[in-house]
């Protein structure tokens, strides 16, 4: 059962339009109602990941108490970081999209936030589907679009990222459903941003909470130019996500509004620099954040995709993920991804870390 956190409602601090602030429109974390208790589940690791081995998500969507089930599921995903379901053969693209959107709506996202349209991986690409809100994750497409990433390498640390943090309104939940699997390989890993935050000393936490970062992905523009197409100009799922310059400013430390817990947000390939520090200091901080992930396997979870239509749903506000490109010659790997959009990232000064929250709930 997910832990019941009973924190008082934080003070509401209005967002300053057209200007980044380190506080945003705070809201009270949602509370677990117990609807998932009747479904078999287990925590994959102590820190991150939960699996429901027998649950059917289409049944969740059509149940009389569907809203309660999905609200509890959203909270479970946000607390555990990532949740796994097996053999969801009855879930098609439309139901996948409905599920992601309702998870966000029922957990309080803005009414203007829909499903993301990827600037590159949309219906205009080869190996895609005729739906801009479904990105096809295809090994064949990757080989064509990202030729420079198919070379031999000695480290995979650059694979770690959270989805679309370069947008002014980035993702809340992502659902990835694999439809075609290689004979072996192609695992996906996730890591807990809550736990990264909790492993930093309190004085350093306070320092980082005063910083913002620039999030950008010029690489997508380069891919589009190299392959003779233009990126999607927007709106890409929210009115703020427009234009061909994929760039935004967000806090380094972020509050997850569903849980009220802090996490390190400025991690991975979409983070360009930490603002207001020197170039050397920025590089040190960003490298250090990734090192905290790769040097601490106990804050990671690794999923082996076992069957077609296995799926994972994760909260990009508090976890990072990395693909494993180890299946060359072992068959194609294809998945359908729907990415929900959440709120403009903020740091609530009254929010706390995961470990402190769980200790208070005992």
From TrEMBL:
Belongs to the TfdA dioxygenase family. PANTHER family: ALPHA-KETOGLUTARATE-DEPENDENT SULFONATE DIOXYGENASE, TAUD_TFDA-LIKE DOMAIN-CONTAINING PROTEIN. Keywords: Dioxygenase, Iron, Metal-binding, Oxidoreductase. One of its GO terms (cellular component) is cytoplasm. Residues 111-132 are annotated as: Disordered. Its cofactor is Fe(2+). GO terms for molecular function: 2-oxoglutarate-dependent dioxygenase activity; metal ion binding. Residues 42-338 form the TauD/TfdA-like domain. SUPFAM superfamilies: Clavaminate synthase-like (SSF51197). This is TauD/TfdA-like domain-containing protein.
